[in-house]
Design a protein that fits this description.
By secondary structure, the chain is of the alpha/beta class. It folds into 2 domains: 194 residues, Response regulator (Rossmann fold, 3-Layer(aba) Sandwich), CATH 3.40.50.2300; 133 residues, Response regulator (Rossmann fold), CATH 3.40.50.2300.
Length: 354
């Protein structure tokens, strides 16, 4: 199989000059005061959800001021290429390594290798695969993300509504997207039983592929009154198809690509259900930083930072939040402080992740 070329982004944040006192723990207490070498390996540089998680991790590193962060991803979703990046990061990120992958099963041996080398690891967005010693997962409830989108959708239709609703899945077989679809369809079936659900159809994940897939799906379903996606690119493609074809239908999606936010603003998307990816990246890296700085045990279990519905009532606030890295950091400051101050409120057993 041909492996795509990689875009390797290495972010150096804070002080990178290592001094004799900065490279060792202070007083044998297990608390490291010097520069930390950490990594965040994510699925792709080409899609907003993964970029947002990396932005969050970079913000946590910047807040500490003495973290050298290797944030790296392939150009386009490519599991084997990401494994290569992760294995490289094990050697260079000895103080902690966050992993966000769409192919977690490929990382059983790499995660075990990291543990054998004494590198703390945290799974982000997708739970760690069985067979590893990674005990901390920072990720939202995807069932909740889908349920929230479904609840926004039914507000747009009367109780006796009839018609076809078409659902797309960017990555068939990826459990977290299947959980979103389960939450979404459960609401529709219960609250609007007169609707006929079609799909989920494969809507692809890369931008051009996603647009072409949705264009075909829309043409193949001329009577559908709504098209709903559960991935980051769906909220970009569906409004564009409406604009280009002149066809009117209800459209909703998940994640917060800038183009999707504009679509909520102009009304071509009724809502977005956000997994709050930035928050996951920030919390994951901050927990590893605290583990090193404070000498405390890395938490174990499923840390759920929550879900946010974005609609006409809060779109202006969220677009302002998403303007740049400074605005994101300012918006989330109080939220991250609250969550990190009360871990017990956000941690559940790992096997409850949904």
């Amino acid at each position: 199989m041909k492996i795509r070329s990689l875009t390797l982004t290495t972010v150096l944040i804070g002080s990178v000059a290592l001094t004799a006192c900065g490279t060792s723990d202070s007083g044998g207490s297990g608390k490291k005061t010097g520069t930390l070498k950490m990594g965040f390996i994510y699925a792709s540089t080409t899609q907003n959800p993964f970029q947002e998680m990396a932005f969050g991790a970079k913000a946590a590193a910047a807040a500490d001021g003495k973290v050298t962060l290797n944030a790296a991803a392939p150009t386009g979703v490519n599991g084997p290429a990401q494994v290569q990046l992760f294995r490289s990061a094990i050697r260079n990120s000895k103080d902690g390594l966050g992993l966000q992958s769409l192919a977690p099963d490929l990382f059983v041996r790499p995660l075990v290798q990291a543990d054998d080398d004494g590198v703390p690891t945290v799974a982000v967005d997708a739970a760690p695969p069985p067979g590893t010693k990674t005990k901390l997962f920072v990720g939202n409830s995807n069932t909740e993300v889908g349920t929230a989108l479904g609840q926004e959708f039914i507000k747009k239709l009367p109780a006796d509504a009839k018609g076809e609703v078409v659902i797309g899945n960017d990555i068939p077989g990826l459990r977290l997207l299947e959980q979103r679809i389960e939450g979404l369809t459960a609401v529709i079936k219960k609250e609007r039983p007169g609707l006929t659900i079609k799909g989920p159809f494969d809507s692809k994940s890369e931008p051009t592929d996603n647009y072409n897939a949705w264009n075909s799906i829309v043409k193949a379903n001329p009577k559908a009154i709504a098209f709903l996606g559960v991935g980051g690119q769906d909220g970009v493609s569906l409004p564009l198809i409406q604009k280009q074809t002149g066809r009117k239908f209800l459209a909703g999606s998940c994640d917060i690509d800038p183009a999707a936010l504009k679509a909520v603003k102009d009304g071509s998307l009724f809502a977005l259900s956000s997994p709050e990816h930035w928050l996951k990246g920030y919390v994951a890296l901050q927990l590893m930083i605290d583990h090193k700085r404070k000498g405390t045990k890395l938490p174990e279990g499923w840390w759920n930072p929550g879900t946010l519905v974005i609609n006409s009532s809060n779109i202006d606030e969220i677009m302002k939040r998403q303007a740049n890295e400074q605005s994101r950091t300012a918006y989330f400051k109080a939220i991250t402080q609250q969550q990190l101050a009360d871990p017990g409120k956000y941690l559940k057993p790992l096997n409850q992740a949904n």
